[in-house]
Amino acid sequence: MTSGVEPVEESTAEESPIVGNGDVVRARQTVRTLAQQARLSLVDQTKLVTAASELARNTLTYGGGGTMRVSIVTRGSRTGVKVTFRDDGPGIPDLDLALTDGWSSGRGMGLGLSGARRLADEFELVSAPGKGTQVVVVKWAR
Amino acid sequence: MAHDESDRLLSLLSEGRDEFIARWVSTVTSTLAGRITPAEVQQDLTDLYGALIVALRDGGLATRNEAYGEVRSLLTELSRSRARQGFSPTETAFGVFALKEVLEPALSRSEDIAAYLQFARVLDDLGLYTVETHAKTREEIISAQAEQLLELSTPVVKLWDGIVGVPLVGTLDSARTQVVMEKLLQSLLDQNATHAIVDITGVPSVDTQVAQHLLKTVVAARMMGAECTISGIRPQIAQTIVALGIEFGDITTKATLADALRHALRRIEQREAAAGIGGLA
Amino acid sequence: MTDRVPILKIGDVLLVSIQIDLEDQMVMDLQEDLSQRIVDTGAHGVVIDISALEIVDSFVGRMLATIAAISRVLGAETVVVGMRPAVAMTLVELGLSLGGVRTALNLEQGIGELRRSRDEGPVRR
């Protein structure tokens, strides 16, 4: 299979702010709409929307607000949805620790990051103290 | 200069239109050996020829240009239907390359050579495009078949009022277990079933990952309000499970499907008795 | 002020039917309102219908577990009914199993479950 080396193309991107409680609900709806457009199965839609919900709440709670960018991506014949969360908050000092189940610095259950990673097909976390946090998740249609 | 060439090509193609199409159709038809009627080929190629002229006029020789959109979509359709009918990629691409052969005699003047070479490049591009589309369509067909196979190999059956079961046969991988899980949970809802039995008598081996999936299915069923029993755990598999250190926790397991069914029936009886609507059972 | 999820009383059972995608604040409010209503009404059971919910994330999942625990302390049993298959599969993947929460396929079975648990006395899980 060559799909591993084929470039990822992006389309229908939507960007929205995550600054208030209502934005978490709106983020879920935006992701759901694009996941439906990308023809993700119902279970995969649910997984991606749930991951986005966790990450949006993280952006709000730990990052002090930020932005979400959702786009439909294609690689070869596969279609998927990519969701990127960005904030300029305090950042995460220890990434491995943050991805451990049950570890939490706030009011959550500590399942946000690790759970989102399990729910997505691809997961990327970039963060450093004082540099903010960026999380990217991708879910491919089966 | 490229402009002159495409102008020259355009006038040539427009003037010789009917003749070229006729020769194109006959060249292509002869290679397809009667598997498609000449009338169909005539229709396809006439449309394509028309679109090609329009594309050359608006977009010149750049096949990546938007002007070639119509040509591409016609080619996509053509390759797809050819792929479905079982033609080889070569036969499909030849449909495009044949136009070169047809044009060759007409472009005999020396100043036409450059134009011909340019046009040949256009046709090469388009030919490759059909090959690509052809391959993509075949891939789609294969993955659709794989999916059908998956669906067929995992029937969820109603065993009793309120009890559904899945007899699993063959090797379990992640994708398949996922499908089983989805179908089983959906049938709980559809059948209003409070009990599910996953029978793994026909599963040759269970590794950590498969055991994990079975566990997840049981937990998901429980969250929906149903009880899930795993039956048909053969001695070797029981040994593997213990050796791998997989924790089956408080999941109900039974040696045979019959035991599991008896267990489920007893549970339903107990519930009905407790709810005061028993006595009939 | 955000909307609040209505809590209905039928006999000695409180019924909460969540019909819309909940904001976090509404989740917190519901937790508070429900505890208060259990005390006020002396209800023996709580049924939370989530059949309309398209997703349950860890925040809502935790709320369900907390409500079950709180109501048990207050002498009422909680049953969560109508979880969709896709939601159940997602929750498992997320790492939640709602261990201490009673569940049922639908409202009818949920109420039956409550009736049984009251006849049987305190439940063991």
Describe what is shown at a glance:
The complex is a heterotrimer of chains A (142), B (281) and C (125). By secondary structure, chain A is of the alpha+beta class.
- N→C terminal distance of chain B: 92 Å
Series of secondary-structure elements of chain B, N-terminal to C-terminal: HHHHHHEEHEHEHEH
CATH architecture of the largest domain in chain B: Orthogonal Bundle
Number of strands of chain B: 5
CATH topology of chain A: Heat Shock Protein 90
Which pair has the most extensive contact?
A: A-C, 26 and 24 residues
**Roughly what percent helix of chain B?**
55-70%
What gyration radius of chain A follows from the Cα positions, in whole Å?
Answer: 15 Å
The geometry of chain A reads as globular
Oligomer: heterotrimer
Question: Overall pLDDT of chain A, averaged?
Answer: 87
Query: How does the helix and strand content of chain A classify structurally?
Result: alpha+beta
Roughly how much helix do the residues of chain A carry, as a percent range? 25-40%
**Main beta sheet of chain A, described?**
5 strands, antiparallel
Total beta strand runs of chain A: 5
Largest sheet of chain B: 5 strands, mixed
Average of pLDDT of chain B = 84
Secondary structure layout:
The complex is a heterotrimer of chains A (142), B (281) and C (125).
Chain A: E1 8-18, H1 21-37, H2 42-61, E2 66-75, E3 78-87, H3 95-98, H4 112-119, E4 122-127, E5 133-140
Antiparallel strand pairs in A: 1-2, 2-3, 3-5, 4-5
Helix pairs in contact in A: 1-2, 2-4
Chain B: H1 2-15, H2 17-32, H3 38-59, H4 69-84, H5 89-103, H6 112-152, E1 157-160, E2 163-169, H7 174-190, E3 195-202, H8 208-224, E4 227-231, H9 235-244, E5 253-254, H10 257-274
Parallel strand pairs in B: 2-3, 3-4, 4-5
Antiparallel strand pairs in B: 1-2
Helix pairs in contact in B: 1-6, 2-3, 2-5, 3-4, 4-6, 5-6, 7-8
Chain C: E1 7-10, E2 13-17, H1 24-41, E3 45-49, H2 58-73, E4 77-81, H3 85-94, E5 102-104, H4 107-120
Parallel strand pairs in C: 2-3, 3-4, 4-5
Antiparallel strand pairs in C: 1-2
Helix pairs in contact in C: 1-2
Structural descriptors:
heterotrimer; B: 281 residues; alpha/beta; Globin-like; 2 domains; 5-stranded mixed beta sheet; 5 strands; rod-shaped; C: alpha/beta; Transcription Regulator spoIIAA; 4 helices; serine/threonine-protein kinase (chain A); transferase (chain A); HATPase_C_sf (chain A); kinase (chain A); HATPase_dom (chain A)
